[in-house]
Design a protein that fits this description.
Elements: H1 7-20, H2 32-70, H3 76-86, H4 92-101, H5 103-114
Helix pairs in contact: 1-2, 2-4, 3-5, 4-5
Length: 115
C-alpha cells in the first residue's frame, strides 16, 4: 500500500509560517527552514516582550508617583505606606495618571493620605 502524506495539512502549516515571516529580510522571508526558525524565535521574543511590557509600565508608574509625591514632601515608599494605612483603593496606574495629568487631584489625595 502506498504511503499516505497529508499534503493539504502540511502545506497549510507551511503557508501559515510563511505568512508570519512576511516582511523579514533575506532568506528569512522565503526559505522554509530559515523562515520557520525565524518565526519561532520571533514568537519567543513576543512572549517575553509581553511580560517585560508589564514590568516596564509598573516601573514607569512608580517613577511618576514618586515624582508627584516628592512635590508634596514625601517619597514613594512613605506615600504608598500611608496609602495602605488609609485603605484607599487606588492602584499605581491611576495614581500615576493623577500625578501626571491632574496634579491638583493628586495633591488632594496626598493631603487625605497624610491625615
Amino acid at each position: 500500500m502506498p504511503r499516505s502524506v497529508n499534503h493539504v495539512a502540511s502545506k497549510a502549516r507551511r503557508k501559515a509560517v510563511m505568512k508570519h515571516a512576511k516582511g523579514y529580510f533575506g532568506r528569512r522571508k522565503n526559505v522554509w527552514t530559515v523562515a520557520k526558525n525565524a518565526v519561532e524565535k520571533g514568537m519567543l521574543y513576543a512572549y517575553t516582550g509581553r511580560k517585560q511590557k508589564k514590568r516596564n509600565f509598573r516601573s514607569l508608574w512608580i517613577l511618576r508617583i514618586n515624582a508627584g509625591a516628592r512635590e508634596h514632601g514625601m517619597n514613594y515608599s512613605q506615600f504608598m505606606g500611608l496609602m495602605n494605612k488609609s485603605e484607599m483603593e487606588l492602584n499605581r496606574k491611576v495614581l500615576a495618571d493623577l500625578a501626571m495629568n491632574h496634579p491638583e487631584t493628586f495633591k488632594t489625595v496626598c493631603e487625605a493620605v497624610k491625615k
